[in-house]
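This part of the workshop introduces the protein records we will be handling. An example says more than a description, so a record of this kind follows:
>
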Amino acid sequence: MTEKKHPTLLERLDGISISALVVASLLLGLAPFVPEPHLWQKLKMLAAGELVRPIDIFDLLMHGTPVALLIIRLVRMWLPGVRENAE
């Protein structure tokens, strides 16, 4: 029997289009738009050492994940040896 090769997490990330990551980053990174985006608020709390409540940590992870994935995807695009998927 031959074993199926399962894609790694980074290979799965390479399959996500840049445009989808940009849209997700903008929508979740800037939500709520008024009075202040959560991501910006949580980053300020992190810098001030006030990010201690579990809900605030969850908010930072939820609103920051698309941005982090976009950054990782862009870095992998410029690394030699990483195949660029057609979008």
User: Anything to note?
Assistant: Residues 29-77 form one domain. The two ends are 34 Å apart (CA to CA). The chain has a mean pLDDT of 85. The chain has four helices and no strands.
